[in-house]
Design brief:
about 425 residues, 17 helices, 2 strands, about 75% helix, transmembrane helix
Length: about 425
């Protein structure tokens, strides 16, 4: 079996699927969000770069903390793209050697190329800040980029290593694979210390310090690498490999689902004991369908974090736009309230498609009424959060009152006109 050809065949199929997702993604909602987010970012970045020195906008040590956190965020983006499928544990059972050597080698090349591009973007966005902060040539920036790419390569190599069954003599025995200590050490603590060293050393020592750190990172890559001779003595841990790829695909689909209705999306249920304890007294005297909608919303691993992220990003953008014209703040608030309701609608569709839900002796009118009640409460909570962000950024009482009245009108329009119309369309195509 040609494992290399198999990987690139799956890679091409995945890119075709990504193109389909992009066609769903670039709809009216995402384009509006992208325009507002991009405009806010450009205005804020332009305002930052108009200062003569970076110290006039904040202490250099605070900017160094921001740079470290930003680069650590970039290191978390990108993972090993293996494209394993659940059936592989059966059909590729006797091909462990080819998978370990050829398949993983191709996967590592593609993953490193994608991750290096991400690191280049994250460092590129910091170039003006780094240039004003250090008043020197671009040597430190080049050293940062080189270290981040090499260290990200080590993370990908280690992720490949964990998908194999290897004797513990080659493992670092200070922690168990996939443990919290391992994630903190390799993804946060070690890169944070190395990045801080590159940022604080004198200019004359930057290349020497970076060379030492690169040697350490390359040695770690060698420690967890799989040679051709070793590939004959190891076996695939198919359970970990398939689980890893399933989680990666779920993250990708969750991103697309933030702005579009992704077909055939796998639903994952997660218990949230703390939130369940909080909502239990609220739903104790509620109807059956209201409790069902509430529990499905809380326990669905994709929808609940998605709504939370949308509300958080909307509040941050509203606060950043505090010096912008009032109409832009209103448009941003209306857009995110609409997006929250738009992303909440698939809960109604998926619930109505469930056979057991249809067997519940509750009329369709009551089901729709309970869903609209929960959607209305969610809109009110989101609007109150946006109002707090607006109050923190606005000083004029008249502007606050105008924004408050406008948000109330937006909620009335969405809950009285938009939601009933969409729910009728759903029932018509049911």
């Amino acid at each position: 079996m040609n494992a290399k050809a198999l990987y690139y065949k799956r890679f091409r199929v995945a890119q075709k699927n990504n193109i389909k997702y992009f066609r769903l993604l670039f709809n009216d909602h995402f384009v509006l969000f992208l325009l507002i987010a991009l405009g806010t970012f450009i205005l804020g970045y332009r305002q930052l770069l108009t200062y003569d020195t970076i110290s006039s906008f904040g202490k250099p040590c605070l900017w160094q903390v921001f740079i470290v956190l930003w680069l650590l965020l970039g290191l978390q983006i990108g993972s090993l793209m293996t494209y394993f499928k659940p059936a592989d544990r059966l059909f590729l059972l006797s091909q462990d050697t080819n998978i370990c050597h050829q398949y993983f080698k191709s996967a590592l090349k593609v993953s490193v190329a994608v991750s290096a591009t991400v690191q280049l973007i994250f460092v590129g966005l910091l170039v003006p800040i780094l240039h004003q902060l250090y008043y020197e040539s671009y040597d430190r920036i080049i050293c940062l980029l080189a270290f981040l790419i090499v260290f990200k390569t080590f993370i990908l190599v280690y992720e490949r290593y964990k998908q194999l069954m290897i004797s513990h003599s080659r493992m670092l025995m200070i922690f168990e694979p996939n443990s919290l200590i391992e994630k903190v050490l390799f993804r946060f603590l070690m890169p944070m210390v190395f990045i801080v060293l590159i940022l604080i050393v004198p200019s004359s020592m930057v290349f020497i310090c970076t060379a030492i750190l690169l040697i350490i990172a390359i040695f770690m890559i060698y420690l967890f690498s799989i040679s051709k001779s070793l590939s004959y003595r190891v076996a695939m841990n198919w359970q970990n490999a398939i689980k890893y790829e399933r989680k990666r695909q779920q993250r990708i689909q969750s991103f697309y689902a933030s702005f579009a209705d992704v077909p055939n999306k796998e639903t994952v249920i997660k218990q949230r004991p703390i939130i369940n304890w909080l909502i239990q007294p609220l739903t104790k005297s509620s109807t059956v369908m209201y409790r069902l909608y509430m529990l499905r919303f809380i326990r669905t691993q994709e929808l609940f974090p998605l709504i939370g992220r949308l509300a958080f990003v909307g509040g941050v953008l509203i606060y950043i736009l505090k010096s912008a014209p009032l109409w832009l703040i209103l448009v941003t608030s209306a857009l995110f309230i609409y997006l929250v309701n738009f992303q909440f609608l698939p809960l109604y569709r998926s619930t109505q498609m469930n056979l057991w839900t249809r067997l519940i002796p509750v009329t369709d009118i009551q089901k729709e009424r309970d869903f609209r009640k929960l959607a209305r409460q969610l809109s009110i909570m989101t609007s109150l959060y946006f109002m707090i962000c607006i109050v923190l950024g606005q000083n004029k009482l008249s502007d606050m009152a105008l924004v408050g009245v406008s948000i109330i009108l937006i909620n009335i329009i969405i809950n009285s006109i938009y939601l009933p119309f969409i729910l009728k369309q759903v029932k018509r195509h049911k």
